[in-house]
Structure formats: structure tokens, C-alpha cells
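ENCODED BACKBONE
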Amino acid sequence: MQSTQSHLFTPYLSHHFHCIQFDPDSFDALSFEQQNILLPASLDKAVAKRRAEFLAGRICAKTCLAQFGQGDFTLLNGSDRAPIWPANIVASITHTRGIAAAIATDDIAVKGLGIDIERDMKPKQEVELQRQILHPEEAEIFALFGEQVHCPLTVIFSAKESIFKALYSTVQKFFGFDAVKLAQFDDKKLIFTLMETLHKDLGKGQQVEVYYQCKDALVLTECEYIAQ
């Protein structure tokens, strides 16, 4: 599969980050073997597009892990489908059509990382999906945020995905979009409030920060969880 390193995004978080743009149409049966990356059995019958995106994410993860001398680590998924990272490594992967990225750190203070890349929703989706993604109390601040960015729902969706990824290793359970509510924003950062207690260290009312940036009809969000 053809891929090239992308410098489209410069992350705000100061951890090892790698992003690639890839051509899913160039994916073939040998692509995993050529990259020395294991194709999980769960993807044996997946469509080529899905396998290409998975491979792209794993290529990014492998590059990040190499920064810690773990480039040959076999990255498997657990029963919950979350990646099982090497001991003392905290990381996150994201991929969408044609682009993928990963971020990783060995900073012991960091308990969770989450990144997410999304392509801008169509205007119709920006309206129709609001009820599924927004907390009922987010309507007012969401309208204000919409005056600042052209794809506000895409950004909020991506941010909540990054929050889930960053907190999941601590929470160890699934939680919905309405578990957090946008409370504040500026031109690079969103601050969300937990609307329910997710864990003894993540109580209702606690705030979570997410960085965001929009470029070339794409959104990147980044979330870092540091336990108090």
C-alpha cells in the first residue's frame, strides 16, 4: 500500500506523533506482510478499505513505538477491541479515509491519550446528527461555537471520541456522548465537563481539555488524561 508521511497537522501535545496519507486503492493482499504487521483474524473478511485504514493506523503506531525501541512490538487488540500497548507506553491511533495518525508517550504522569481525525461532515449531517452527539444542555454554547468554526458538530464529535479514548483505560467501560458537555472554548482548545461520575478519579463536574484544529476539510482532536 502506498503511503507518505503527512505534515498537515502539528499536534499541540508534545508526545511522539506520526501521521501518514495513504492510497487505499493501492492496498492488496501482501500489504500487511510487506509492512511486517499482523492482520487480525477479525479483519480476514473485511472489505479492502477497512483493512487499508487499519493497516495505516498500525503503520503510524509502529513508527511511534520505534521511538521507544519497540518498533518490532506486535500490537494486538484486547477483547474490547482496544490496542494492548507495551508496558509503560500510553498511546492512541486514529484513521479515516486516506489519512491516519498515532501518538505515544512513556511519561508516567500520563494515564491516557486520545486522538481522532475526522473528515468534515456534510452540512445536512451537521444538523441531523446533533441530537445523537450533543448533550441537551450544549445547545447554547454549541451555537456560539458554530460562529467560530464551519463544522462545529464534526469538531465536537471528534473531541468526544478523543475523550473516550483518553479515559477508557481508566474507566474500563463504554460511555456515551452525553457523558460530557462542552463548557468553554477558544481558537484551539475545548473544555468539557463530566456530566456523570465515570470513575473514582473522574467525578461529575470534573473538566477535560481537548485541543482541536481544522485543516483541508479535516479535523484533528487531542486529549491527554493526567490523574490528579
In short: The mean pLDDT is 97.
